[in-house]
Amino acid sequence: YAFISYLGRLNEPLIELTTQQAMLQQAVVAGERVFELMDGPRQQYGNDDRPLQSGTIEVDNVSFAYRDDNLVLKNINLSVPSRNFVALVGHTGSGKSTLASLLMGYYPLTEGEIRLDGRPLSSLSHSALRQGVAMVQQDPV
Prior knowledge:
Blueprint: H1 2-39, E1 57-65, E2 71-80, H2 96-103, E3 111-116, E4 119-120, H3 126-132
Antiparallel strand pairs: 1-2, 1-3, 3-4
């Protein structure tokens, strides 16, 4: 009986140790990705500091790929008049979050153009874009 009891006492710390090792490996990989982002090129913004006024959004033939030519959005067109609200609804993986991220200027477009208040998104400064555009995520952060 003592032998079985001691084996149980040995087994639990070993399981805990392997769990901690797996978590440590995940932390190392996450740290490497953070440093890759920090060492990479900074995102470019425009110089137009004028605040956004009307809230008009025009999306013209926007296509986007995270990598290479594997488009996740293709030829998207959208027109949102001033002072209107839009909800992006669709199946998982249909591109809702990607489109919202493009509207926030998080990624450069592969093709097409997005205009806010008639001004190209690429011409807006970081401060004008962040102060003039708001996004509500589907999942709480």
